[in-house]
Design brief:
The complex is a heterodimer of chains A (113) and B (111).
Chain A lengths: L3 E4 L2 E4 L5 E7 L5 E8 L3 E10 L2 E4 L7 E2 L9 E3 L8 E8 L8 E2 L3 E5 L1
Parallel strand pairs in A: 2-11
Antiparallel strand pairs in A: 1-3, 3-8, 4-5, 4-9, 5-6, 7-8, 9-10, 9-11
Chain B lengths: L2 E3 L3 E5 L4 E8 L3 E9 L6 E6 L3 E5 L2 E6 L4 E6 L8 E9 L6 E3 L3 E6 L1
Parallel strand pairs in B: 2-11
Antiparallel strand pairs in B: 1-3, 3-8, 4-5, 4-9, 6-7, 7-8, 9-10, 9-11
C-alpha cells in the first residue's frame, strides 16, 4: 500500500531534549516536505527536499533541521525543542513539485513542556 | 510575502451546493491545490488547477482565474461526511518547491 509513515504519532517531552521525527515513503517520490499545523495559522512549511541531498527552507525553519540521505526518508530533527514547537506535524511526499498532489502522513502531535 | 485568503467558516445543509473561495497573492505561480482535512486526520488531495477554467470531478469542481488571483471549490449535493476543513494551497513563490497554504475553511453540513 502506498503510504507516508511518520513516527512517533504522539510525543510529550521536555525543553532541550533532542528529538527526531522520522518520515518514510514507499512511492519512490522525489519531493518531500515537512509542515506544522497550529490553530488559526493553518499549515506552514518548515523544510522541503526536491531530491536526495537537496533540501531548502520553508516558511518556519528556525529550530529545525532535516536531512535527505536516501530517497525514501526525510527525518525532522529538533536539536533543542522549546514549548513554541508544540504543534501537529505532517510529512508529505509527491512525485515531483509543481502540479503533483502531495500524500500526507498521519501526523505527529508533539508537546514540549 | 505570500498571501492566501479563504473564509474561516461556512455552513450549509445536506443536498445543497456550497462555494468556498480562495484569493491569493504570490510572487510566482505554479498551480493551485485544494485539500480536504477531516478533524484529527491528514489532508487529502481534492483538485489541482494550473490553467484558467473549471475542473470537474464528480460532486467537486474547482475553478481558477490567474489574472484575478482567485479560485473556488464547488461542492454539490452536500453530504454530512463533507463536514471538514478545506485547504487552498498555492505552489510557487520565488522558489519552486514552496507550497503556501491558506488557513482553511471549516465547513459544517447540517441535516
Amino acid at each position: 500500500e502506498a503510504q507516508v509513515t511518520q513516527n512517533p504519532r504522539y510525543l510529550i517531552t521536555v525543553t532541550g531534549k533532542k528529538l527526531t521525527v522520522t518520515c518514510s515513503q514507499n512511492m519512490n517520490h522525489e519531493y518531500m516536505s515537512w509542515y506544522r499545523q497550529d490553530p488559526g495559522l493553518g499549515l506552514r512549511q518548515i523544510y522541503y527536499s526536491m531530491n536526495v541531498e537537496v533540501t531548502d527552507k520553508g516558511d518556519v525553519p528556525e529550530g529545525y533541521k532535516v536531512s535527505r540521505k536516501e530517497k525514501r526518508n526525510f527525518p525532522l530533527i529538533l536539536e533543542s525543542p522549546s514549548p513554541n514547537q508544540t504543534s501537529l506535524y505532517f510529512c508529505a511526499s509527491s512525485r515531483g513539485q509543481g502540479g503533483q498532489p502531495q500524500h500526507f502522513g498521519d501526523g505527529t502531535r508533539l508537546s514540549i513542556l | 510575502g505570500q498571501n492566501i485568503d479563504q473564509p474561516t467558516e461556512m455552513t450549509a445543509t445536506e443536498g445543497a451546493i456550497v462555494q468556498i473561495n480562495c484569493t491569493y497573492q504570490t510572487s510566482g505561480f505554479n498551480g493551485l491545490f485544494w485539500y480536504q482535512q477531516h478533524a484529527g486526520e491528514a489532508p487529502t488531495f481534492l483538485s489541482y488547477n494550473v490553467l484558467d477554467g473549471l475542473e470537474e470531478k464528480g460532486r467537486f469542481s474547482s475553478f481558477l482565474s490567474r489574472s484575478k488571483g482567485y479560485s473556488y471549490l464547488l461542492l454539490k449535493e452536500l453530504q454530512m461526511k463533507d463536514s471538514a476543513s478545506y485547504l487552498c494551497a498555492v505552489s510557487g513563490g520565488s522558489t519552486l518547491g514552496r507550497l503556501y497554504f491558506g488557513r482553511g475553511t471549516q465547513l459544517t453540513v447540517w441535516p
